[in-house]
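FAQ: What does the model actually see?

It sees only this:
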Amino acid sequence: MRVRYTLWGPADLAEIYEFLERRHPAAAQRVIATIERQVGWLADFPYMAPATDEAEVRELTLARYPYKIYYEVVDDEVRVLHIRHARKRLRERKR
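And it is asked to produce this:
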């Protein structure tokens, strides 16, 4: 299955990296690598995360870091909608 970032995905990664890089550069690298690894697993295990209240959207919570990956499975594609810190409010979705 193919994995694709939608509008917010790359911007979310950049925002997370920039925030962490100012405080702890080594942690920034580890967190981004973990997020990217988890997103990569979605190609093989697209239904690994539980569904949310929003139709077709799944929420993958990182075990070690307080981030969540929101995505949907459409046909043969996983669409990463948004990546955010667990304590922040979810942005309105744009695909």
